[in-house]
Amino acid sequence: MLVYSTLKVALYISQQIAADAVADVLDGRNLTIALPHALAGFAKATPQQRGAAADLSYGTLRNYGEVNAYLTQLLEKPLSNSHVTALLLVAVYQLLHDQAEDFTIVNQAVKAASYAKPRWAKGLVNGVLRNFLRQKDALANKIKNNEVATYSYPQWWINKLKNQYPTDWQSMLVAGNQHPPMTLRVNAQKITVEAYLQLLARQDIEASHLGGQAVVLAKPVPVENLVGFLDGVVSVQDYGAQLAANLIDAQPNMRVLDACCAPGGKTSHMLEMANLQMTALDTDATRLERVKSNLQRLKLQANILQGDAAQNNWWDGKPFDRILADVPCTASGIVRRHVDIKWLRREADVGFFATQQAKILANLWQMLAKNGKLLYVTCSVFNEENQQQVNQFLKNNPDAQQLPFVLPAHSLHHNITQQQGQLIPTIAHDGFFYALLQKN
């Protein structure tokens, strides 16, 4: 939650930047692209204003279902200007969730509107926001039974989770709207978890041990401020994602493929655990540069290839002992980190990704050695991409066997659906699905 006491009259700049970013996202652009683009338009903004703009962008989109439900009631009809609409969304979000004074938020939003091209924007923003403050309780009463407003997810998403997780759907929606923790993976080749916690304590950085090599910080800090980060002592990786390297059971000198590897977190974790003949594959050349950078920082080696995991024109014909298939998906399990996903995804996208996943899985299976193991992974919580996908694959491939889902001793057993390998998102970790398949 933001406090703007030190920003005062400069708040309108952060509101303008956030409005530009939110408008771009609602027009179909990813926030990871929209926010830097919006920031580039305000080169003279201070670091504090830029940080506040990022917080406002994420907060508005995280709570878009609720904020938009309020705004819809306040407008007679949708506005033709997307930037003014987005500015109102940002301001309503602030009035609902921030600690800044209502007077400051409204006045600064009006000032931000005065820089907008339509001359009517200033008066409209002033009138709408003051109307909101006068009618807030009555407006809240009208949307109290609106699930999109209550949970800030599209209705189709809510309905799907209700159907697939009848006892967990509400907690999953709530978890997806929380601020994600900053979780680290300690490099066991260089230091113990206990020793690294002591190093953090000396820097007055509060942290705790989640399990395995995972350490969670009480408050996020810039990575450059983390002791040992530049020397490869520690990496940033969600606790749920850290399970992959344990589950795949890669032994020293094995030939291993990490398909769809970028940005390289799981690749590097496997190499930290064992000396492997590692091939790291991804279709995106830009993202492969991040893989290279991560491996260089950690002083690890891998054969990095650009190629499509659904094709075999990059393969040398030698089978792999282990394959990590971290396939493209809806990313429905990591929405707290990517708040725009909820509003950019469409229900039809689930089937689109499922089709892609089936092609990748079938292709990679041809590259797996006999008695080899393939770990199928998604960061999704939708069954169509997860166990349903695996069930269809097993039906089509009689030489495939799904092995029992055996978690590392340090994992949070009560948050795992043991029969299907579904990691349900909680405050401690994101949502992932794991299925370990063996070729008989």
What does this structure look like?
With 440 residues, the protein is α/β, with parallel strands linked by helices. The chain folds into three domains: 8-149, N-utilizing Substance Protein B Homolog, Chain A; 182-236, Alpha-Beta Plaits (2-Layer Sandwich), CATH 3.30.70; 239-439, Vaccinia Virus protein VP39 (Rossmann fold), CATH 3.40.50. 46% of the residues lie in helices and 15% in strands. It has helices at 11-26, 31-40, 47-62, 64-74, 82-97, 102-114, 121-142, 147-151, 155-164, 169-176, 193-202, 239-247, 265-273, 285-298, 341-344, 347-365, 387-396; strands at 182-186, 207-211, 214-217, 234-236, 255-259, 277-282, 303-306, 320-326, 368-378, 400-402, 416-417, 422-423, 432-439. Helix 5 (82-97) crosses helix 7 (121-142) and helix 12 (239-247) crosses helix 13 (265-273). The longest helix has 22 residues, at 121-142. The radius of gyration is 24 Å and the shape is globular.
Short description:
Strand 2 (207-211) and strand 3 form a beta hairpin.
Mean pLDDT: 94
Please tell me the CATH architecture of the largest domain by its name: 3-Layer(aba) Sandwich
In CATH, the topology of the largest domain is named Rossmann fold
Beta-strand share of residues: 5-15%
**Structural shape:** globular
Number of domains: 3
Distance between the termini: 53 Å
Q: How many distinct beta strands?
A: 13
The number of helical segments is: 17
Q: Give the proportion of residues in helices.
A: 40-55%
Radius of gyration (Å): 24 Å
Ranges with pLDDT <50 over ≥5 residues?
1-6
Query: In CATH's first tier, which class of the largest domain applies?
Result: Alpha Beta
Class based on secondary structure composition and strand pairing: alpha/beta
Run of helices and strands:
HHHHHHHHHHEHEEEHEHEHEEHHEHEEEE
CATH superfamily of the largest domain: Vaccinia Virus protein VP39
For the report, how would you describe the main beta sheet? 9 strands, mixed
